[in-house]
Amino acid sequence: MLEVSDLRFAYPGRPAVLDGATMGLEAGERLAITGPNGAGKSTLLQILVGLLRPQGGRVWAFGAERRVESEFYEVRRRAGYVFQDPDDQLFCPTVAEDVAFGPLNLGKTPAEARAIVDRVLADLGLSPLRDRVTYKLSGGEKRLVSLATVLAMDPDVLLLDEPTNALDEPTTARLGDILLGLPQAMIVISHDPSFRARVATRGLSLRAGRLISPASLG
To answer: Which residues form the ABC transporter domain (predicted)?
Structure first.
């Protein structure tokens, strides 16, 4: 579903964070990626959806090579990216408006968007938050609503950047239950070894710019 080959990327004035990175994601896989802070994990996800352009290497998504901005429009529709900081993703006054934003932009009618909002919030057990003011939510609630905004777009793949960051144990367990119940293939960046071991079907470690198989998921 997603594949990168020999990716190379460096921020101005800094050493390369990706230096020959290669990986692929198959349908139904839940791939965990770990590595030190600053190793380039978030950079990799941003390249996959075209938010950054690699300085070398190739990106394939959903059966086609992607090179220019126009070729990534489809990728960003089909690959739902949940950012590390929920405040980067939530910007509407209420939860319902945030979840409806994506479907409305895809051309759904207001009635269709409301139905999607109700379904997604119910599926995630978030219906009581429907009319809450977004910025007043707890960190864990924001994290789950961010996932709801992405699932409302009915993506084929999920890209989750540190989804358990700052979550308490019950919310982390709840998020794990949700992810295990979803059909989408996913890439999960996580420093949490127990969460990786529970959720992922395969793991890679990003070190020195390359993706390697770790000894275990934990």
So the answer is: 2-217
Decide: 14 and 206 in contact? Cβ < 8 Å.
Answer: no
pLDDT along the chain (218 residues), means of 10: 96 94 95 93 96 96 95 94 90 95 94 96 93 92 93 95 88 90 95 93 94 75
In a domain, 115, yes or no: yes
* CATH, residue 94: 3.40.50.300
Distance CA 49, CA 110 (A): 27
Whole-angstrom CA distances from 193 to 42, 117, 147, 184 are 18, 32, 21, 21
Which stretch of DSSP H or E encloses residue 199?
helix 193-199
Q: How far apart are CA 121 and CA 151, in angstroms?
A: 10
Domain range spanning residue 77?
2-212
